[in-house]
Amino acid sequence: MMLPELVFATNNKHKTEEIGNLLVNQYKVLNLKDIGCDVDIPETGDSFAENAKLKTSYVTDNFDLDCFADDSGLEIEALNNEPGIYSARYSGVRDDLKNLNLVLKKMEGETNRKAHFKTVISLNKGNKNYLFEGIVYGNIIQAPIGQDGFGYDPIFMPLGYDRTFAQMSMAEKNEISHRAIAMKKLIAFLKEQV
Q1: Which of 45, 97, 115, 127 could staple 51 via S-S, CB 3.0–4.6 A?
Q2: Is 64 a catalytic residue?
Q3: 13 is an annotated ligand-binding site residue
Q4: What is this structure's pTM?
Q5: What domains lie within the chain, and their CATH numbers?
Q6: Running along the chain, 194 residues long, what does each successive block of 10 average in pLDDT?
């Protein structure tokens, strides 16, 4: 039996395999490289949802394939929800350490440490667009702790935990992360469609 194909608008092979394993026997999950798309799709939207939609629209318009994409970032209450959609290049460059240090500098002396990570997934399927959101709430700590994870993980402590994302194993983080929450919603929706 031929499985329907679904494109994940990413070049991250590990992300593609991870999702492919969750949708085994239902969809053949492909990434941008698999469909011959080597364009760095611009993320010029004003929100995570708009950026995710830009990626799915590009694939649907240019390759005529069902597709999903995600956009995520960190929003800090005291910084008016910055870095937000600019999380990956907050310091002006894609450098995790520079971005993290800029956040810590801006948070010096700030007592309101509330923050959340947010992911929005856009799915284009059968000429319709669907959005799935995942949020995990927590606080920004004073200094980085932990070796695992990436981005702002060493300074983000989720509510109800005494460890940062960077102190958790990948499996543990994937149980509670914003991306995991949004992906679970997407996968539940896709399983209903088959």
Answers
A1: 45
A2: no
A3: yes
A4: 0.90
A5: 5-193 (3.90.950.10)
A6: 88 80 85 94 94 96 95 97 95 93 97 97 95 98 90 96 93 88 92 76
